[in-house]
Write a structure and sequence with these properties.
This protein is an alpha/beta fold. About 45% of the residues lie in helices and about 15% in strands. Helix 7 crosses helix 8 and helix 9 runs parallel beside helix 11. The longest helix is centred in the middle third of the chain and has 19 residues.
Length: about 240
């Protein structure tokens, strides 16, 4: 049985490529991330198709707008039955609280299961130079922890953060707080455009609830073998 802690990123441009990848991965992967590239190309149909295949879906659209717009945007996505939705914590406490409250209320009104709602802290593609270039005086780690605390206060179920901050978030926000970690690269793999990266085993050891793996699986010559390698590395704890 597939390990739900592994989320494979469907970062491909067409539905045909997504369906082919899911077929090749078979029962080795049960959880998929649908991000902007695929969602903007295919719309909600790809999410509903994945659900029909018995898969779980993290719909990674990083909503970030004024509180009401973000909240209503999330409610519009409920019909797709995603398992995880996200917003960007940079929108602030009021935005996150409005999003969580509206999503729970809409799910209850519709008699639907409420997706987990998590907040993106700081993108894993950013390094200290990028961060300073935006005018931030503090460290990335300080910002991630502060935003994780705000997300918890707002009623979110967890955050997206790099593996470097996972252990600190886990200690601060508790065992039930989701920590979803992108920037995962199997041992020996290229970093590509990620900066704050680590291996599957290190991420799980640090306390990650889920790890998100993209290129290392979908760009592999044998995606299923690559996914199974990640799963083996996750057990090396």
């Amino acid at each position: 049985m597939a390990d739900d802690r592994l989320i494979a990123a469907l970062d491909v441009p067409t539905r045909g490529e997504a369906e082919a990848l899911v077929a090749r991965l078979g029962d080795s992967v049960a959880y998929y991330k649908v991000g902007m590239e695929l969602f903007y190309a295919c719309g909600g149909d790809i999410v509903m198709w994945l659900k029909e295949q018995g898969k779980k879906v993290f719909l990674d659209l990083k909503l970030h707008d004024i509180p009401n717009t973000t909240a209503q945007g999330l409610c519009s996505l409920l019909r797709l039955r995603p398992d995880i939705l996200n917003v960007h914590t940079a929108g602030g406490l009021r935005m996150m609280r409005a999003a969580a409250d509206a999503l729970h209320a809409a799910a209850e009104e519709r008699g639907a299961a409420c997706p987990k709602l998590i907040g993106v802290t700081v993108l894993t593609s950013m390094d200290t130079g990028d961060w300073a270039g935006l005018g931030h005086a503090g460290t990335i780690e300080d910002a991630v922890l502060r935003r994780a605390r705000l997300a918890r206060e707002a009623g979110l179920d967890g955050v997206v953060a790099s593996p470097q901050e996972t252990a600190l978030i886990r200690r601060t926000c508790g065992a039930d707080f989701l920590v979803v970690t992108p920037g995962i690269r199997p041992a020996g793999a290229s970093r590509d455009d990620q900066r704050r990266v680590t291996t599957p085993a290190e991420a799980v050891r640090a306390g990650a609830s889920h790890i998100v793996v993209g290129r290392a699986i979908y760009a592999a010559e044998d995606p299923r073998a690559a996914a199974e390698q990640v799963l083996r590395e996750m057990e090396e704890i």
